Amino acid sequence: MSVLTKSDICKRLAKRDLVISPILHPKQIGPASVDLRLGNTALLVRGSDVSHVDPKAYLGDKRRSDISLEDPTAHLPDEDDSFDMESRRRRKMERISVPFHTHVMLHAGGVILVSTFEWVKIPKDLVGTVTARSSWAREGLSIATATFINPCYTGIITLELSNLGQIPIELYPGLRLAQIAFHELDPKTAEDCKDARGQFNDSFEPRAGRIVERDEAFIPTQEHPDVFEVAEDEDQDGDLKVPGNRESRL
Amino acid sequence: MLDPKGFLLVECQNVEQILQESLRYRYSEDVAAKYYTECFARLGSIVNGIKSVPMDEPDLLQDWREQLGTLSVLITHIERSHLEEFPWPFAFELERVAHDICAHYARTKDVLFFFMADGSPISYAVRGDEFLTVRRSKIYSVFFPRTLKDYVLLHAIFGHEVGHVISLAAGASEKKGSEISDVEMDLFADSRFATIDGFYEWCRANIGVLSKASDSYLKENLKSWRREIFSDLFGLLMMGPSFLYAFQSLLAPMYAPDQKLAFVPRHPPYPLRMVILHQAAEYLKMFYGDEGGDAAKLFRKLDKEFRATAKPFLNSEFAVVRDDKIHAAVSSLQKLMEKYDKPSVLYQRPENALLSELIKSLKKHIPPVGPKQINGDGSLQPLQLVDFRSIIHAGWITWAQRSADNKNDDLDDVSENVSESERFRTLNRFCAHAIMQQGGIRRLLDYQLKEERKNNQ
Prior knowledge:
The complex is a heterodimer of chains A (about 250) and B (about 450). Chain A is of the alpha+beta class. Chain A has helices at about 5-15, 60-65, 85-90, 135, 185-195, 245-250; strands at about 20, 35-45, 95, 105, 110-115, 120, 125-130, 140-145, 150, 155, 160-165, 170, 175-185. In chain A, strands 2, 3, 5, 7, 8, 9, 11 and 13 form an eight-stranded antiparallel beta sheet that branches. Chain A has a three-stranded antiparallel beta sheet with strand order 1-6-10, with no helix packed on it. The model of chain A is unreliable at about 60-65 and about 225-250 (pLDDT under 50). Chain B has helices at about 5-20, 30-50, 60-75, 90-105, 160-170, 180-185, 195-205, 215-240, 240-250, 270-285, 295-315, 325-340, 350-365, 390-400, 410-415, 420-455, and strands at about 110-115, 125-130, 140-145. The radius of gyration of chain B is 24 Å and the shape is globular.
C-alpha cells in the first residue's frame, strides 16, 4: 500500500477519478496530502437534554432508515420503538448552520462533528486517511476518530473535532483544519470494495452514527431480556423483582 | 378595568418583553442585529405615539394599535427564522440579486431582507412591510416553505415573489405614468380584459362566475391579475428557464384538468398563466433546444416537457393576451431590469460548455460548483464564480435527462433502488450544496480583490 504523492493526486483529480471539490488554492495540495476546510454544518451534544449515551435509543435505527412512503405504517412507534427513545436520540445532538464569517466555538474537552467544505469521492482502489493539520494540532485541536475513509465513499467528510487544550477555539468555515492522504490498495483486492457503501455515504452534513447496527443481540430489551435475569419474579439475590422493565430497575 | 390607552401601553411592555426574549434565538446572522434594532426603534416610536394621544380622543389610538400588532408579528417571525429551517445559501443569493432593485422601488437604501420558514408549498412569499409611519428601514419578509427546505430547483419561483414586491412598492396599477404601471396596464390593452365588462364576460364563460359582482370587486381582481402576470414575467426574466419548470411543478397540482375552473380571487387561472409564460419564453428564445447542434441536446428534453404541458391551452380561450403585447411588456421589463447589473437582476444564460460541466458533475454525484478545476499537468484553473441560477438550470436539465440515455451515469447507477421523489430531493441537495460552496468561493475572490486593490494603492 503506497501513499500517493502530489503528482499522483493531481493526475487522479484531473481524471476525476478522485474528487475533492472545490479546491480553493493550489497550495491546498501538499507533497502527499490535500488540505480540507471546515464546512458550514456542525453537530453539538446538547448536554441539557441527555444524561448519557444510551445504545438502546439506537435500536430502531435500521428499520427507520428503511421507511418509505409505500409503507407509512413503519413510522408508527411500537413497544420497542417508543416515541421517547426516538426523541431522546434526536435531542442528543443539536445541528447548527455556520455561515461564512460566523464561527462555532469548540470548548476545552468538547467534541463536535463538523462537515468539510469539500465534497469528496474516493475511487475503489484508494483509501483516505484524515488527520488534523499540524499547525492546528499545536493549538490543541484533534481529529478524534474516523481517520479512514473507505474506497468508493462519496460525500462530505465528517470531522470529529475535539479540543485537547485548556482554552476554547473559535472555528470559522473555510479554515483549513484537516488533511487527507491517500493509500493505494492492491488492484486485486480493490474489487472487493466496489460494493462496500458505508452508512455515511452520500452525506451532505455530519450525522450521528448507528452505533448498535448488527450488535442488537447485545442490548437487553423487554423482548430479549438480560441473560442474567434468573427467574420470572425474582432477581439474582432472590428478592422479588420490581415491576417494570430492566431499565426502570436500574 | 383598563382604558384603551392603558391597555395599549401594557401591550407595548409585552411586545418589548417578547423582543427581549428574541435575543435568545439564533437567527439570520447577517441581519439579526439590524432587525432587532429596527423593531426596537419602531416600538419606541409607537410608545411615544400612544402616549401623545389625548385621553378624550381614543379614535386616534386605532392606527397605533394596528402598528403595534404588525410589529408583534414581525418579532414573532424571529422564532421561525432559525438557520436550520430555510436554505440560507440560496436566501443570501436571492437577497444579493434582489436588494438594489427592491431598494430603488421602495425609495430607500435601508432595506432588510428577513428570511424564515413557514408551512407548505403555497407559503412562498416575499412581503414588504406596510409599516410606513415609524419605520427607519424597509423590511421584506421572505417566506420559504418549511417542507421544501432543500428544494432549490423549486425556489426559482421566488422570481415571481420579487416581482410582486416591486409591483407593490412602485404602487403600480394605481396610476398610469410610472414605468412599472405602464408595463402592467399595457398588457391587457386591446384584449378582452381591456374593460371590466369584457373581463366579467370572459370569467363567466370560462371559469364559472355566474352572478355579476360589483364593478369595484371586478376592478380589484383585474388589477390583481395584472400584477400576477407582471410578476410571472418578472420571475421568468430574473430566474430564466428554471422559473418555467418551478412554476409548472408547483402550480400544476392545483389544477384539475377534468373539472371546470373555479374563480379564485386575485389569481388568474393556471392555464392562462401558462399560455402567457409560453408566449414570453418563445419571444425570449428561452427554449434553447430549438437552436440545433450538439448543445441543443442538453435542453431539448426539458423544453419538450414544458411545451407539452402548455400545448393544450395555446389556442384555447386562455390565449387572451396578444403576442405583441407580451413582447412589448417583456422588452420594457428587460430594459428596466438591465439597470441593476451588479449583480445582474436579469438572468444571464451561461455558456453551454459551463452548463455541460455542471450537468456532468451532477450525473457523477458531485455538487455542480463549477467547471473542472485541475488540468492534466496538475495545475489549477482559476476559480470561477457561477451564478446560482445557472446551477439551478443545470439541475433542471439533469432532472429531465435522468432516464434512458444515462444508464451509465452515477446518478442512475446509485439511484436504481431509490424512489423518484428521493432522487429529486438528492438532486436538489447537490445543487443547494454547490450554491453554498459558491458562497465560499465568492468570499475568497472578494477578499483577494480587496487585497489586490490595497496593494495597488
